[in-house]
Amino acid sequence: MSRIRQMDKTLMVAVGALLLLGTVMVYSASAVFAESRFGSDIFFFKRQLIWLGLGLIAMIITSRIDYHQYQRIAWPLIVVSLVSLVAVLFTSEVSGARRWLNFGWFKFQPSELFKYAMIIFVATMLSIKREKIRMFKSLVFPAMPIIGAAFLLILMQPNLGTVLVLAGVVVILFFVGGVRKRILFGFGGSIATIASIMVFVIGYKRARVDSFLAAVGDPLKASYQIKQSILAIGSGGVLGKGLGRGSAKLFYLPAPHTDFIFATIAEEGGFIIATAVLVLLALVVWRGIRIAIHSPDLLGLYMALGISSLIFIQSMTNLLVATGMIPATGLPLPFLSYGGSSLLFTLAGIGILLNISRQSVLTPQLFKSRAQ
After folding, report:
1. Other beta carbons less than 10 A from residue 149's beta carbon
2. Within a 10 A sphere around the Cβ of 107, how many other Cβ atoms?
3. pTM for the complete prediction?
4. Pairing state of beta strands 101-103 and 360-361?
């Protein structure tokens, strides 16, 4: 079996370009707010550099660890992530949510750890139980209770957006793994029902949904942040206003360096840079899927596919929010948004992809798995 011994250089270049652009844009988007709030225009920029450094170290480490080793820590990792999801519920609220564990100079978001713990856990389960995966009981124990418990804990933060993203990743992995369609529909239907109850019965983010539905018939009725995001994107034109010259970040657009950083990029970089971002993100996802297809075994396939799916779904969700196509969810744009936990674990995930790419084979594994 012929193997490819080098890491995927195209993936590394694409990720590097996104990180460079993201670091520059975090400073540009946050400088005015940081100066006003903390008395230093590089307040967020310094923290982003620290997390970027930690993320790159994590990527280097995970790229050198044989991905098969993660099978051994799949259970401990999922347990640690569940414990951290419980712990975060006993912290103080920030903007109406409990999503961060505070460790002095930095904050840690347990849901970011769970994203990759879940991918490793599900990939391990699917690869081990591949001959019995079509049987319902093989999924019920132990996958469904663990995933369900974690989703419930994340919903209690509350953080519906993360649950919907992770549900999409689970559905993709289960589908490729050969899980019966009725189980997939049941899982998807359950998530949709829970989301509907949270929004329309409990009232979680109901105002955002109502505003979005109203804007479908009349764009002028869109929420304030969506209006400002669209205005920023449109005002950038083809070439943009120039780095640092955007006006939306001057207290018009909320979260210009986090949830809505794409609007800042489009305003200052224009259509050309915005398109470059889309191309680079698509390139990362494509290389991840290619690594999955050419992985040497099912474990590598599922892990690479899970990581690629997570980056794709979260990126699409953020971009759709920024362009007013779905209600705001509060999810960062991978590689670009300010946010330590997200950047750290995303880069660790890229390291896993790079390790799998070093062990790639020429015979596609994806189609072999669907045939089994």
Report:
1. 13
2. 16
3. 0.91
4. unpaired
